[in-house]
C-alpha cells in the first residue's frame, strides 16, 4: 500500500492509515501470492490515479470473484485469474448487485466429512471445478465422487487410504483444508506425509489432534501421520476456524464424548455447523 502512496503507523494499538495526496498507480511484485494482499491492493488501486500492475498475484477464485464485482461497479481490471493483474484507476464506482461464489473451503470440508466418517453427503450449490486437487485426493483415498445438477455427491463405504498432500497456492491443495486431510489420515489405512507450504502456524492443530490419540510427528513443514482405526475422546481446543472444523470431524470418529472448546471460531466460517451435522445424523450438540 505504501507503494501506492499510503502512509500507515501504529497508535495506541491501532493502525492509522491515510493517503494525504491520494493513491497513485504503481508496479508491485508480491514476494508470495497472498490472497489478502492481492485483494487489498486490487481494491485500493481501482480508485488510484493511473495504472497499477500487480505481479505474482493470487489466482484464487475468490480473487476473480472480487475483481468481477469491482468491474461491475465500473473498475478497469484485466488479468484476473493470472499471476499479473492490471488495474487502471477510475474516478468513481457505481452501485451494483452481485452474488458471491460458493465457499470452496466449506465445500471441501463437507467432502472430507463424508470421507472421514465413511458417510454419504450431497453438497448443493458448489463449484467442483474450484476444488480439483482436493477432490482428486479424496478419490485416491477411496471416495466415490459424482457430479449432480448443482454440486457433488461424496460417498465413502470403507476406511480411507492414507494420502500424501502438499499445500500450495491455488490451484494447488488449499492450506485451509490441511486440518481436514490430517484428520482423515489419522484414521486412514497406512502412513502419509502432509507438507505445509503456505501457513506456518497451521500445525498448531496437530497438538490437539494428538490428544485424541492420533499418531502424528511434526518435523518443520512436514507432518508424518500413521493411521489408526479409531481415535479416542478428549477435551480439545480450537485455535482457528479450520482447526475447529477439523477437530469436530475428528470427534465424530472418536469413541466417547469429545469436547471442542473455542466453538466461536467455527461459527465464523461455518454457520449452523452443529445443526447441519445433526441433520446428517451426527450426535453433535452445542455446550454454552
From TrEMBL:
CDD domains: UdpNAET (cd01555). Residues 2-277 form the Enolpyruvate transferase domain. GO terms for biological process: cell division; cell wall organization; peptidoglycan biosynthetic process; regulation of cell shape; UDP-N-acetylgalactosamine biosynthetic process. This is UDP-N-acetylglucosamine 1-carboxyvinyltransferase. Its main location: cytoplasm. It comes from freshwater metagenome. NCBIfam families: PRK09369.1. Coiled coil: none annotated. Keywords: Cell cycle, Cell division, Cell shape, Cell wall biogenesis/degradation, Cytoplasm, Peptidoglycan synthesis, Transferase. InterPro entries: Enolpyruvate_Tfrase_dom (IPR001986), Enolpyruvate_Tfrase_sf (IPR036968), MurA_subfamily (IPR050068), RNA3'P_cycl/enolpyr_Trfase_a/b (IPR013792), UDP_GlcNAc_COvinyl_MurA (IPR005750). GO terms for molecular function: UDP-N-acetylglucosamine 1-carboxyvinyltransferase activity. It catalyses: phosphoenolpyruvate + UDP-N-acetyl-alpha-D-glucosamine = UDP-N-acetyl-3-O-(1-carboxyvinyl)-alpha-D-glucosamine + phosphate. The keyword Protein biosynthesis does not apply. It is an enzyme of class 2 (transferase). Its EC number is 2.5.1.7. The keyword Ubl conjugation does not apply.
Amino acid at each position: 500500500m505504501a507503494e501506492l502512496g499510503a502512509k500507515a503507523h501504529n497508535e495506541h494499538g491501532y493502525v492509522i492509515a491515510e493517503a494525504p495526496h491520494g493513491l497513485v498507480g504503481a508496479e508491485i511484485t508480491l514476494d508470495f501470492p497472498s490472497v489478502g494482499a492481492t485483494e487489498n491492493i486490487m481494491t485500493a488501486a481501482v480508485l488510484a490515479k493511473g495504472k497499477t500492475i500487480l505481479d505474482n498475484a493470487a489466482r484464487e477464485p475468490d480473487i476473480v470473484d472480487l475483481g468481477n464485482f469491482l468491474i461491475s461497479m465500473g473498475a478497469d481490471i484485466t488479468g484476473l485469474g493470472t499471476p499479473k493483474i492490471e488495474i487502471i484507476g477510475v474516478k468513481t464506482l457505481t452501485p451494483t448487485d452481485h452474488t458471491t461464489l460458493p465457499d470452496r473451503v466449506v465445500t471441501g470440508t463437507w467432502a472430507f466429512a463424508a470421507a472421514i466418517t465413511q458417510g454419504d453427503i450431497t453438497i448443493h450449490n458448489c463449484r467442483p471445478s474450484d476444488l480439483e486437487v482436493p477432490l482428486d485426493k479424496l478419490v485416491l483415498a477411496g471416495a466415490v465422487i459424482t457430479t449432480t445438477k448443482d454440486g457433488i455427491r461424496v460417498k465413502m463405504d470403507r476406511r480411507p487410504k492414507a494420502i500424501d498432500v502438499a499445500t500450495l497456492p491455488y490451484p494447488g491443495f488449499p492450506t485451509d483444508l490441511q486440518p481436514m486431510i490430517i484428520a482423515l489420515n489419522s484414521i486412514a489405512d497406512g502412513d502419509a506425509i502432509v507438507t505445509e507450504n503456505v501457513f506456518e502456524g497451521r500445525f498448531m492443530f496437530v497438538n490437539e489432534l494428538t490428544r485424541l490419540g492420533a499418531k502424528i510427528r511434526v518435523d518443520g513443514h512436514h507432518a508424518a501421520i500413521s493411521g489408526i482405526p479409531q481415535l479416542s475422546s478428549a477435551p480439545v481446543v480450537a485455535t482457528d476456524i479450520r482447526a475447529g472444523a477439523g477437530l469436530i470431524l475428528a470427534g465424530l470418529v472418536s469413541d466417547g464424548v469429545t469436547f471442542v472448546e473455542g466453538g466461536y471460531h467455527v461459527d465464523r466460517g461455518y454457520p449452523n455447523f452443529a445443526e447441519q451435522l445433526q441433520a446428517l445424523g451426527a450426535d453433535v450438540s452445542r455446550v454454552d
